[in-house]
Amino acid sequence: MTVNTSNKRIEYSGSGSTTVFAYNFRILDETHLEVILVSSSGVETVQTLTTHYTVAGAGDAGGGDVTMATAPASGEALVLRRKMPFTQDIDYVSGDPFPAETHERGIDERVMEAQELIEITDRALKAPKQDSAIGDMPAAAARVGKLLTFGTTGDPEATAYTSAQVQAAINVASNAGTNDTEFIFHAEDSDTYTLARYLQNRHVVNVKDFGAAVDGVTEDSSAFSNAATAAGLTKTILLPEGTAVVSSGDFSQYSFVCFGDFYSDNATVNVTRLGSNANEVTVSVGSGGDFTTINEAIAHLIGRFPTATPQPKAVINLRTGFVMEEQVFAWGIDLSWIRITGDDAETTIDSSYLTESPSTGVDNYSSTYYPAFGVYAGGSGPKIDQMFDMGFTAQDPTFRNVGVLCYGPGSSIEVGRLSGIRRCGWYGVLANLGARVLAYESNFNTTYGRGFFANEGSLISARESTATGCLSTAYHSSDGSQINAEQADGSNSLVGFSTNNGGRINCKNATATGCQEGVYAGNGGEICAEGVTASGATGGNGVGIRAFQGGRIDASNADASGCASFGISIEHGSWCNARNVNAQKGGAPDPSDVRALTGSWINFDGGTGGTSEVVNTLTSNGVISS
Fold it and tell me: Is the pLDDT of residue 117 over 90?
């Protein structure tokens, strides 16, 4: 059989419904066809035979069909191309009859291999025929971070450009009125990199294209206004070299790159310059807004203010009815200059979209959790200035869904006043391995696990916050971590405030009423619980203040009255300062009001309630002093 066509590849656009695609060239075997799925963003993924597709028509002169297991979506492309193994497996045996068919197949294979090489070279840069040769590319180490240029001999060179050279190139293009030009620059100079991030793959609207003279004399306000209207919030407005006279208008919401200057005697004129943080730029997300997702808005703001110093301020406002169907991650990037607000009193989080943990493979502990907001690798998350509702009415059976996860040294995030995430499926806030969370006066109520959890040297500042009604502990610190929960409220949770393994909590003047245990310190943990209200402990334990196995609690002036089992129970070598504490369970003192057990010590000077041991008498259970 002959190879009577030069066809060797074909490309289709996906529709979301079509699964059968024809190829119009001969292949000798189904493995000689390569199937590539191209995403809407241009990412190519080679498909696997039998897993993603099947092939019919191998050996047929006119080609055959590829049947996809899943129809390529609209916006995706499918490329079918011949890909030969480039081997020669024909072996002629001396004296045998001439194998004409086998011989012809070998010739066909060589032609197909040549066609494949032609297909590859058709997609390559080639020197014109008039050039006898072209020099080699510079080595990888020599071309990193540089532009590919051609020297005086026409051979390839790797060149580092300065910001002045890049600026000159931009000015040439901009003064020519090329407002649709896409600039792609990268060089080692930091200023050049800033310009690259502003202009990379983004259309630039030039004020000169809208009539701006930029001559220091002519009034350019109208041109600025028209340019801003055309740019919206998705394009950059370019002010070329020169001086623009702007007498009216407020352009603080727009992205400017200014190589020139502007003059105004009107104080209301406000132009956001490269690196300025004088104004807070606002974009909206949701129905009728600028973007459909929070991540789209963040990507826009990063492109708009990539490396500005000092850092700008930006707001992502969630419009009425917006539902968060995504996860927001800050991996090694500073997003603290962005804050998230909302029009609704609460924004719903659809937990079915919480499906990823970027710390997978980095930390086995944190990788088991799927957060709505995650910060990793020294990054800083956007400030959460909105109340969210994850919507759980029972504990997440997978123990994965977390409101905020902050992981690793240097990682941080802030939750604003009267903001937070309630009804989380597992944890409200988890700070792990040296992370920092600021959540002053925040709200993580009705969490179906722990409200706030600091682990492995992390710090959470949650002063005056609330984490009431948690299925587990409202505030828990472990393994050398610290939580400042002064004046916080962890009432009606399993445990209000707890710590172990050297963790520390400050819950001075906090509230933990109606818990099974109001305050608990175990395994060397320490708690400052001065003035805490831990009354009315109920349930299985029913203890207002408890220390266990070396735990230490300063509970002076606290209220641990009306508890079901013990007002204070200090056990197994633990310590408690209970000076002036009301630990009385009922109307009269009872020996179970204050209990020392197994070598523990309690200072009950000025306290109210009965004691399990005779005051100021050392026993095997320790001593209760007054």
Answer: no
In percent, the amount of the chain with pLDDT more than 70 equals 85
246-255, 366-375, 447-456, 538-547, range with the lowest pLDDT: 246-255
Backbone conformation region of residue 598, classed left if phi is above 0, alpha if psi is from -120 to 50, else beta = left
Q: Where are the beta strands (DSSP E) in 14-122?
A: 20-23, 33-38, 44-46, 53-56, 64-68, 77-82
Amino acid present at 523:
N
Cα–Cα distance, 198 to 300 (Å, whole number):
10
Q: If you search the block for the tokens 């009193």, which residue do you land on?
A: 345
CA distance 427 to 453: 7
Distance, CA of 145 to CA of 158 (rounded, Å): 9
Q: What SS3 class is residue 94?
A: coil
Q: What is the Cα–Cα distance from 407 to 429, expressed in whole angstroms?
A: 11
- Residue 126 phi/psi, 5° resolution? -135, 145
How many CB atoms sit inside 10 A of residue 586's CB?
13
Q: Which residues contact 622 (CB under 8 A, 6 or more apart)?
A: 570, 596, 597, 598, 599, 600, 601, 602, 613
Q: Which residues, listed in sequence order, are joined to residue 559 by a DSSP beta bridge?
A: 533, 582
Rounded CA separation 546/387 (Å): 33
Helix residue ranges, H only, 85-235:
100-122, 140-143, 163-175, 190-199, 221-231
263: tokens are: 């003059």
| Strands 370-376 and 328-331, bridge-based pairing | parallel
Distance CA 429, CA 192 (A): 39
* Close Cβ partners of 512 (under 8 Å, ≥ 6 residues apart): 474, 489, 490, 491, 493, 495, 496, 497, 518, 519, 532, 533, 534
Phi, psi at 35, each rounded to 5°: -115, 120
As a whole number of angstroms, the distance between CA 60 and CA 1 comes to 9
DSSP code per residue over 524-589: T-EEE-TT-B-----TTT-EEEEEESS-EEE-TT-B--S-SSEEEEEESS-EEE-TT-B---SSS-
Measured at the CA of 229, the angle between CA 226 and CA 234, to 5 degrees, comes to 135
Q: What gap in Å lies between CA 293 and CA 327, rounded to an integer? A: 10
Strand partners of residue 504? 482, 526
Q: Over the stretch 119-139, which tens digit does the pLDDT of each residue have?
A: 888 887 777 877 877 888 888
Render pLDDT for 428-475 as a digit per residue (tens, 0 to 9).
Answer: 999 999 999 999 999 999 999 999 999 999 999 999 999 999 999 999
